[in-house]
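debug: dumping io for the single-chain case to check the tokenizer round-trip. Nothing else runs in this session.
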Amino acid sequence: MSANPVNIIRVKDVMKLEFDMVESCETIRDALKKMQHVATKCLIVNKNNDDDEYGMVVLSDIARHVLTNNRSPDRVSIYEIMSKPAITVHPNMDIRHTSALFDRFGLSRAPVVNHEGQMVGIVSHTDMVMKGLLQMD
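debug: decoded output
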């Protein structure tokens, strides 16, 4: 008896290839300008060196740490509020496993990093549901 083949949708099939990166020393004002220019709610914080990890700053981080605390976006650096190390996923990961990982750690999106440690995209719950779920059998 043979099992029915499962239609596996991988992160690489649904991820966004375009993403913006910032440096950790930039200000929140710089980050907000980039977010506004590219119409995104998330920026990837670049590694400081090859042995470092990627970070991430999302709009809700800015609201929680800057707006709520009445801090000036010109005086707060991304480094102070970013999440680092960012939880990353591999392009070949099954989106069902990625969704389970997101649920477990309360994530809405994650950087996609290949075997060489290079950023190749970003994936969100929205991407997985809207682009991936309908492709499944």
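debug: round-trip ok. The first strand starts at residue 21 and ends at 22.
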